[in-house]
Amino acid sequence: MRTVQDFANAYPAEYARFKFHLLPDHMQHGFAEYVLYGQPMGHFGTACLEDRLVAAFSAADQINTARMADTASWLYNHCPIDARGSQAKVRAWIEQGGLVGWMAQQAAG
Question: Global pTM?
């Protein structure tokens, strides 16, 4: 699997569980690539994932500023706990290759 759509096609129930549609439209794909494949995000997404509120607001565009509560709610309710919360957790999520990397590790035993 190489794309978000590949994952959605192969694992539709798992993909649906993340509810990326709750995020601002222009952020959905970036957060999906991060969660599924460990693809690093830009300044705003990284600040959100690392729980750095002031940095998130300073990097946010007008839409993300207006929708900050939606993004925070999505992070708390739908983003894997191992993928958010600190710089170390975000770095580890990226290094393992996101959910797909974790799934490969589990399959390898």
Answer: 0.95
